[in-house]
Amino acid sequence: MGIRDALASAPAKPVIATAIGMTILVAGWHGWNVRDICTRRANLSEALHDWTKAVFASSGGGSRLDSITEFDWDQIRISQGKESLGPGRSCPFVWHWSNTARSQMAQKGHLTLIGFFKDDRLVQIADFDRRWAQFDTSEEPIARQRAIFKQVTNTNMLRVSDR
User: Fold this and answer.
1) What single string gives the DSSP state of each residue in 67-134?
2) Closest by alpha carbon to 96, among 30, 37, 32?
3) Threshold 0.85, pTM exceeds
4) Using CA atoms, how far apart are residues 23 and 116, in angstroms rounded to an integer?
5) Of 37 and 15, the one with more pLDDT
6) Terminal Cα distance for the chain, rounded
7) Which residues are bridge partners to 124 per DSSP?
């Protein structure tokens, strides 16, 4: 059966053609959605890593966390050393860390999750490798205007600046 024959028979079987078409559309939409979420998460994680390096390279002054974000948020919550993760979005095709990679990091205590919130609703979440830096904070929310961090002298620890 050739393509012409298949196309000629499609109107005779509209349910099959519609089902195939809908399946292709849904799969395409889902794939695009996963790619978009994973790409944003990867970009935010990379920006946090670069920001951390800049804080360590600075001369002790604080650095604003909001300088790296392009979305609106009013507080962050930092959760360090997570050992187990609930179900989450796995990022295939190296768009970001897969669930397997994240679970391995979590089991070793290397995973920090940074949640960005607006009006107590999660806007973005970032994966952060604790080997890059650790945060000297509790899991209490930190207001955007207070999210200025500086290095604790001679450590890889970041603390909210008091200025």
Assistant:
1) GG--S--SEEEEE-------S-----TTSS--HHHHHHHHHTT-EEEEEEEETTEEEEEEEEETTT-E
2) 37
3) no
4) 34
5) 37
6) 75
7) 116
